Amino acid sequence: MTSSASSDNQGGKAKPQGEKQPEWANGLRKLYDSVVDEPLPDAFKDLLSKLDSKD
Amino acid sequence: MGAEQRTASEKADFKRELTEVVPHLRAFARGLCGRADMADDLVQETLLKAWAAQDRFQPGTSMRAWTFVILRNAYLTDMRRNRFRGEYDETVAERVLTAPAGQEEPIHLADMHRALLTLPPERREALLLVGAGGFSYEEAANICGCAVGTIKSRVGRARATLNSMLQEGSIPRRSLDDDTAHRAILEELDDVAAGLGVAARS
Questions:
Q1: 65-94 in B: which are within 8 Å (CB) of A?
Q2: Do A4 and B133 make contact, defined as CB atoms within 8 angstroms?
Q3: Full pLDDT tens readout for chain B, 202 residues
Q4: What ipTM score was computed for the predicted complex, to two decimals?
Q5: From CA A31, how far away is CA A28, in angstroms rounded?
Q6: SS3 labels along B39-90
Q7: Please, which of A11, A33, B118, B129 could form a disulfide with B174 given CB 3.0 to 4.6 Å?
Q8: For chain B, how many structural domains are there in total?
Q9: Residue B101 and residue A29: Cβ atoms within 8 Å?
Q10: What is the CATH number of the domain that holds B34?
Q11: Do B62 and A37 touch (CB under 8 A)?
């Protein structure tokens, strides 16, 4: 999964100390990434595989 | 509005891209509505809508941005129907707490999630898009159908609110069963929804 290829400044985890981010900023990202990294529940696989046949 | 027939390979590309974006949809949805089960319902609804609207997707553009618009609209609609009461799912918090993230004060993740859910919806989504999803202000503005300046100010306010909540450790339990709070939220939603048109229609 290419997690965002979009222009953004928080690519790596070690940020240069240019823009001061509050300590929780990284956590916000983690919260999001923790869900992105979850294995996909079967319900989604089922749904996706059914989409084609509904054409 | 390209009504041209898509080739089989374009359809296959669409399917593949849609599949790839599902984890992101789940993450965005969970940030928005705070409950894992409802978030997943929302994602399923989004997938069906996206599939039905696939002729309107322009190949080469961002599938993530396109589907986020759909998800967001579905969320707003459901919110108005009162399906989400913005309930906070403790089990999600527990799970997040024990997630591999645990290097640095993991407790903050749960606090943050709770704090996030107390934000007015338009600020919450702006912060999610930019601060968590990594969208640029321009992309986020497109998704929300509003001006870039509006997104910047929403993100700024959201950050300020979270800053003070998390620093003081005082995260209000915004009771969504409280009528006043609930009405306020619905009014906020009207404003948010007013911006729907732009990005949604294309």
A1: none
A2: yes
A3: 444 577 888 889 999 999 999 999 999 999 988 788 889 999 999 999 999 999 999 999 999 999 999 999 999 888 777 655 544 444 444 444 444 444 444 446 777 777 888 888 899 999 999 999 999 999 999 999 999 999 999 999 999 988 888 777 666 654 444 444 555 555 556 656 665 444 444 3
A4: 0.72
A5: 5
A6: HHHHHHHHHHHHHHCHHHCCCCCCHHHHHHHHHHHHHHHHHHCCCCCCCCCH
A7: B118
A8: 1
A9: no
A10: 1.20.140.160
A11: no
Q: Shortest CB distance from B166 goes to which of A2, A24, A54? A: A24
Largest CA distance in chain A: 52
Helix (H) or strand (E) holding B110: helix B107-118
Judged by a CB distance cut-off of 8 A, whether residue B19 touches chain A is: yes
Show the domain range for B119.
8-200
**Domain for residue B124, yes or no?**
yes
By Cβ distance, the residue of B44, B113, B132 closest to A29 is B132
The structure tokens listed for B21 are: 């974006």
pTM of the model: 0.73
Which residue on chain A is closest to B160 by alpha carbon? A22
Q: Which residues of B touch A24 (CB under 8 A)?
A: 108, 112, 162-163, 166
